[in-house]
Design a protein that fits this description.
8-stranded antiparallel β-sheet, 2 helices, 16 strands, elongated
């Protein structure tokens, strides 16, 4: 009888300990806390960024979220994609006079990509604001070891001499020995890897700068980076400027 009770008690304690671990994991670990007026009422809200690590010895968070607490104990929650080194910035990007919640975390991939999310809590209504997308960006190989890149529709193409890579391109069957293109080939255009909030001017406020990599015949064949400057106005992102920065 005593042996049976001991077994049952041991099983109970094991299950109790396990349930506590599960409950603790569900609460997540506190990553950072920031404060700011997010509703526009002149009183600060508190943003607690929390996450659940992939494993105890890992630095990757498989789940990340923000818990927002108002001065009168109002609560909101924003769920994010997992990643490394998650952080939020409170900054007015839609120019309504109220700070927005800008999240970012590194994916850890070879392309240096980041996860992003932008939310507003103006007037107590939690809404996600879509981030800008580069809709027009094209590039292709031309004869004589030339790459043509068009940053915006109707703009003059940028012509890049890639003859220093000719040996590799000939080996891949892209060109012949005389620099004749053997088959149509577009360049590889990555999605936007990184956003950086930047001050446009004191009167205009903040916008976003995006960074987007372009590669040649394969991903490691980096040609350069497209830097674009964006500004949110009338409910949409406006492309203010685009610049090509060759890798060499």
């Amino acid at each position: 009888m005593r042996k049976t009770l001991a077994i049952l008690l041991g099983a109970f304690l094991t299950m109790f300990g396990f349930s506590q671990v599960i409950a603790k994991e569900a609460d997540g670990v506190l990553i950072e806390t920031v404060e700011g007026d997010l509703t526009g009422d002149g009183v600060n809200e508190t943003v607690n960024v929390k996450g659940i690590l992939f494993s105890p010895d890992a630095s990757y968070y498989r789940e990340i979220w923000s818990e927002i607490i108002g001065p009168n104990k109002e609560e909101w929650k924003i769920s994010y994609q997992g990643g490394y080194e998650p952080t939020v910035k409170l900054i007015d990007l839609n120019h309504d006079g109220v700070k927005d919640i800008f999240y970012q975390s590194a994916t850890g991939g070879s392309g240096g990509l980041y996860n992003y999310q932008l939310n507003t809590l103006a007037n107590g209504e939690l809404t996600e604001i879509p981030l800008p997308e580069q809709l027009y960006l094209q590039g292709s190989f031309k004869d004589d070891f030339i790459v043509s890149i068009e940053l915006t529709q109707g703009s003059d193409p940028i012509l890049m001499d890639v003859s220093d890579r000719s040996e590799d391109y000939i080996r891949l069957g892209l060109y012949d020995e005389n620099g004749k293109l053997l088959k149509p080939q577009s360049v590889m255009i990555d999605p936007i890897a990184f956003f950086e909030p930047v001050l446009i001017s004191d009167s205009k406020g903040y916008g976003l700068k995006s960074f987007q990599q372009i590669s040649g015949a394969y991903h490691a064949d980096g040609l350069g980076t497209v830097e674009s400057l964006w500004y949110f106005e009338d409910g949409k992102w406006i492309l203010l400027q685009t610049e090509w920065l060759p890798s060499n």
